[in-house]
Amino acid sequence: MSTENEQMEVETIVIPAEDGSDPECAILSDFRYNGKSYYLLAVILEDDTLSDETLLYGYEEFDDGIELRNLDEEEFAKVSAYYEKNIAE
Questions:
Q1: Across residues 60-82, what is the average pLDDT?
Q2: Cβ contacts of residue 70 below 8 Å, gap of 6+?
Q3: CB 14 within 8 A of CB 29
Q4: ∠ CA(24), CA(67), CA(58), 5° rounding?
Q5: What are phi and psi of 75, to 5 degrees?
Q6: 37-64 confidence digits (pLDDT tens)
Q7: Which of 53, 56, 52 shows the shortest CA–CA distance to 80?
């Protein structure tokens, strides 16, 4: 039996940032679209809550880990529309 005080375990990933902040993010969704893999992420704040702002990244898996990639505006629009229509609750 679970209580409100128990927190659900979430998978996380650290995003290398140009400013060196390298925020830890919760993986909210891991999905495929047009043969490519994507993560929908939320930054984990200092108080261990999730940011209201979500981030969308493409990624590729390699033997030594995962490589994130930024999406251009066109790909972002298509992938986010797909997510909203087919995956979001």
A1: 95
A2: 57, 58
A3: no
A4: 85
A5: -65, -40
A6: 999 999 999 999 999 999 999 999 999 9
A7: 56
CA atoms within 13 A on the CB side of 77: 3
Question: Would you say residue 31 has pLDDT above 60?
Answer: yes
The owner of tokens 């972002």 is 76
Weakest-pLDDT range from 34-38, 46-50, 72-76: 46-50
Min mean pLDDT across 4-8, 30-34, 43-47, 49-53 is at 4-8
* DSSP letter assigned to residue 23: -
- 3-state SS assignment for residue 42: strand
Rounded-to-integer distance, Cα 20 and Cα 51, Å: 19
Domain segments of the chain as ranges: 12-86
What are the residues facing 50 on neighbouring strands? Answer: 44
